[in-house]
Amino acid sequence: MPEPRVAIITGAASGIGRALAVHYAGLGVRSIIGSFSGDPHDPQETLRLVQAAGGEAVVHEVDVRSTASVDAFAQRAVDEYGRLDYAVANAGILRNSSLTEMTDARWTDMLDVDLTGVLRTLRAAADRMTEGGAMVATSSIAGGVYGWQGHAHYAAAKAGVLGLIRSVAVELGPQGIRVNAVIPGLIETPQSLDPVNSLGPDGLAQAGKDIPWGRVGTPAEVASVIAFLTSADAGYVTGQSLIVDGGLTVKMRA
Fold this sequence. Notes:
Elements: E1 6-9, H1 15-27, E2 30-35, H2 43-52, E3 57-61, H3 67-81, E4 86-89, H4 104-114, H5 116-126, E5 134-138, H6 141-144, H7 152-172, E6 178-184, H8 200-208, H9 219-230, E7 241-244
Family: Belongs to the short-chain dehydrogenases/reductases (SDR) family.
Protein name: 3-oxoacyl-[acyl-carrier protein] reductase
Pfam families: adh_short_C2 (PF13561)
């Protein structure tokens, strides 16, 4: 019987990361649940849901702004389960700032988490990943497809993720490691429900009416796509960016 696969997931205390850990549990994939001390969401709830789904996981605190922290996070998979098969760079922050209010510090802080944090995660995994492994990074339609006023730093980081995964896919292909990205559309997560830095509940509900599918997406719907991209079913897919948006980006505007 094959050895169970092992995944590291940053930003797994809530939202898409939490949904992915639970989805993986149903597939028999063990997860290292990455959480950040400044995140108000409880990673132990993710662990409880994984265990309720019959899965196995451990919680590990990680700060994607720190190379040492990310390296230790990836190594935890090897120390705990003896292997690393999947790496999902999902941690991210969202802050509202107009261009004229965009200080160097705001710009740098955003890119340090949402872009360089992805680099650190993929780099740490590459040193430890078994052949036939797979990596996925979370981008966004903001930057990945559209511009978004008040969020130039966020959009720049998410656009940068797409260039990063293409280049890393080329580099790691000879090692038998695939690298892809998901581009979520409007997904109901704690981040998008933030009325200060994002759309908030009312704005999200209103925006959902303009989506061909008739509503915003759920974290589980993005998680299932990530799971597909890391699975053997996507064994010849690498360097790609898959949009998960209910048809929002292909709808012609009047």
